Amino acid sequence: MLKRNVTLLVLSLFLMIVTSCSKEDKVTCTTCRSDQTPDFELCKESNGNASVNGEDTGVKYEIYLASLQETGVTCGG
Question: Which pTM was predicted?
Fold first, then answer.
């Protein structure tokens, strides 16, 4: 009985760790284009910042994207 309880506890802890980490690690990316620059990859990192070609900009994604769009950069579709 004790062995079963320990197994259930370990399994529960494992599932909690896996599901909580998977939400935090989500990164979404899109390709951006401009007449003045080559195409580049813009990502929203798990910390909410924008990264360009893998380099964290230190700026929140929504703010960075809005600034790009104001200068005529097109991202996505």
Answer: 0.66
